[in-house]
Amino acid sequence: MTATLDLFDDGGDEPACLPLGEGAMVLRRFALPDEDGLLSAVQQVTAQAPLRHMVTPGGFTMSVAMTNCGDLGWVTDRTGYRYDRLDPESGRPWPRLPEAFLRLATRAAAQAGFDGFVPDACLLNRYEPGTRLSLHQDRNERDYGQPIVSVSLGIPAVFLFGGATRSHKAQRVPLAHGDVVVWGGPARLHYHGVLPLKEAGHPLTGRCRINLTFRKAG
Ligand code: MD6
Ligand code: FE
C-alpha cells in the first residue's frame, strides 16, 4: 500500500492533529504510510516473544494480550509492575526494536514537539472485541520528561483521556488504524484507558487492534 500523508490536508473532515490538552495530541493516520512495515515487524516480534495474558499484582488476568521489544519490556505479575531486560516466559532478552518502529516513534514525537526521542522499550498490546484497559497512569518509567508514543493499528477503539486524578472526567477519543497519540510534558501522568472494543474486522489485522506504545523507560 502506498498511502501518502500531508499533515495539513488529510482529505477527510477531521484535523490531522487533534490536541487533547497541553502535552497530548492525536496525529491522525500518521502511521498509515508505514502500515505494511509495521505489521510485518509485529509478526517478527510476536514470533520470538509470543503475546500472552499477564497477571496484575491483584491477581487478575489481563484481557489484553501483551509482549515487548527493545532493551526493556513492561511486565506485571503477582509481585508488581516493572520493566525487565528479560522475557519472563523464555528467560531471554526481548527482541530488538525493529528499525521501522524506531523511525516512526522518533518522527511522531518530533512532530508533536518532542525532539530527540529515542525509545528503549515498546509494549505491544493486542485487543480483541470485548477487551478493555482500565483507567491507569504510566509511572514505571524513570524520566517523566520523556513522552510516550502510542500507535493504533487494526480495528477502532475509544481511548479515554482523563486528567491528573482518577476522578477527573475523561474525554472519549476514537482511534482508528494508523492514528498515533503522543503524550508528554504536563500530560505525562494523566489517567487514560481503553473502552471495551466493539465487534469489528480489519483487512490487515483481522478481528483485533494492535497498539504499540514506545517509551524511554531506563
Ligand atoms: C492503548 N495505551 O492505547 C493503551 N499509555 O491501547 C496506553 O495505555 C497508553 O496509548 C500511555 C500513553 C499512551 C497510551
Ligand atoms: Fe498507558
Write the CATH homologous superfamily of the domain at 5-33 and 98-215. Alpha-ketoglutarate-dependent dioxygenase AlkB-like
The low-confidence runs, each spanning 5 or more residues with pLDDT under 50, are none
Strand adjacency order, main sheet: 1-2-11-8-13-6-3
Strand content: 25-35%
The largest sheet, given as strand count, sense and whether it forms a barrel, is:
7 strands, antiparallel
Separate helix tally: 2
For the secondary structure, the number of strands is 13
Distance between the termini: 35 Å
Assign the structural class, choosing from mainly alpha, mainly beta, alpha/beta, alpha+beta, or little secondary structure.
alpha+beta
CATH architecture of the domain at 5-33 and 98-215: Sandwich
CATH topology of the domain at 5-33 and 98-215: Jelly Rolls
> Helix coverage percent of residues?
10-25%
Cα radius of gyration in angstroms = 16 Å
H/E topology pattern: EEHEEEHEEEEEEEE
